[in-house]
Amino acid sequence: MTHAPDAGDGGQGRLLVTGAAGNFGSACARHLLEVGYDIVSLDSRPSHVEGVKNVTADLTDLGQVLEALTYIDWQYTGGVDAIVHLGAIPAPGITTSGATFDNNARATHNVFLAAKIKGVKRVVWASSETTVGIPFDVPPHQVPVTEASPPMPQSTYAMVKVLEEEMARHFCRWDADLTMIGLRFSNIIHESDYPELIGAQGDPAERRWNLWGYVDARDAAQAVELALKTARGGTDVYIIAAADTVSPLTNHDLLRAEFPGVHVVGDIGTHTTLLSIDKARKDLGYEPHFSWRDHVERE
Ligand SMILES: NC(=O)c1ccc[n+]([C@@H]2O[C@H](COP(=O)([O-])OP(=O)(O)OC[C@H]3O[C@@H](n4cnc5c(N)ncnc54)[C@H](O)[C@@H]3O)[C@@H](O)[C@H]2O)c1
């Protein structure tokens, strides 16, 4: 722990969580509080998660990000032990590509640069499954898709995520003590989303766009917690998905219907995720606990 302790310190250290007022940010902040972190939210709107300290600020303004890492009047003093950077326009098509680029690329550069300037040595940030070719209008190079598959962004949103991964590589080259872990989340599903998700399963074409992938928000939060603790330095990226696909159909039936002739590597199982999580399992100890199948059984 490097920051000056103050009231409300959770014992694991203090995190600046950007985007903590968002859908995943709220779930993630709740989980990190539960496991003992003290959380400072940096978002353009306040987080309503109880126990979070709010700093309402604009990530595209470097001065505001630096101040949030340094001192916010009565809120807290001292620095933070690590940054979890989730703040972004979270998908293509929400606003224009130009506005998405301006917001997301600048925000991430500011967060990475502010970490370097303030000597914060660990950053975990939300990359995305979209870096690998989503939507798969063009078939994937192979299944399962892995981190070794070449980046194939199909939108400005995804291209910025690829740029962020490249930025992290150079920040870590400049500072050998820095650890920057990018989590390429699949489509993040909250418990309340399961009924709609399950309703969309009849037609294999409906979710071919991301190879029938998803991740429960609680597992995505687990991945953040693990990435905060990993002993490895430098930068790396991990696909974070559920252990299974979202479809009741078998992988062979899905691929026959939507990607006939795709190069299949190894044993793809019956319902095993086609967005490989082997690397996250091996390096981070990630193991998804939640599946839509359990949700169906409970209904
Ligand atoms: N939701 C998914 O399925 C999914 C999948 C892969 C990756 N991701 C990534 O995960 C992260 C969180 O996604 P989410 O679904 O919670 O999105 P969200 O829109 O619910 O939350 C994003 C938060 O970022 C904040 N934000 C955006 N720009 C900001 C700025 N300039 N200054 C301050 N705050 C700003 C917003 O106010 C919002 O609270 C994003 O980086 C997204 O790209 C999401």
How would you sum up this structure, described in words?
This protein is an alpha/beta fold and 299 residues long. It has a single domain (14-190, 217-243, 276-289), classed as Rossmann fold, CATH 3.40.50. It is built from nine helices and eleven strands. The protein binds nicotinamide-adenine-dinucleotide. Residues 19, 21-25, 43-45, 58-60, 86-90, 103, 107, 126, 128-129, 185, 187-188 line the site of nicotinamide-adenine-dinucleotide.
Question: What is this structure, in a nutshell?
Answer:
This protein has 299 residues and is an alpha/beta fold. The chain has helices spanning 23-34, 62-68, 97-118, 156-174, 194-199, 217-229, 251-258, 278-284, 292-298, and strands at 13-18, 37-43, 53-56, 71-72, 76-77, 82-85, 122-128, 179-185, 188-189, 215-216, 234-240.
- Overall spatial form: globular
Main sheet, how many strands, which sense, barrel? 7 strands, parallel
Counting structural domains, the number is 1
Fraction of residues in helices?
25-40%
Q: What's the helix-strand series? A: EHEEHEEEHEHEEHEHEHHH
Query: Which CATH class?
Result: Alpha Beta
- Strand coverage percent: 15-25%
Radius of gyration, in angstroms, nearest whole number: 19 Å
The N- and C-terminal alpha carbons lie at a distance of 44 Å
How many β-strand stretches?
Answer: 11
Question: What is this structure's SSE topology?
Answer:
Elements: E1 13-18, H1 23-34, E2 37-43, E3 53-56, H2 62-68, E4 71-72, E5 76-77, E6 82-85, H3 97-118, E7 122-128, H4 156-174, E8 179-185, E9 188-189, H5 194-199, E10 215-216, H6 217-229, E11 234-240, H7 251-258, H8 278-284, H9 292-298
Parallel strand pairs: 1-2, 1-6, 2-3, 6-7, 7-8, 8-11, 9-10
Antiparallel strand pairs: 4-5
Helix pairs in contact: 1-6, 3-4
The structure holds nicotinamide-adenine-dinucleotide.
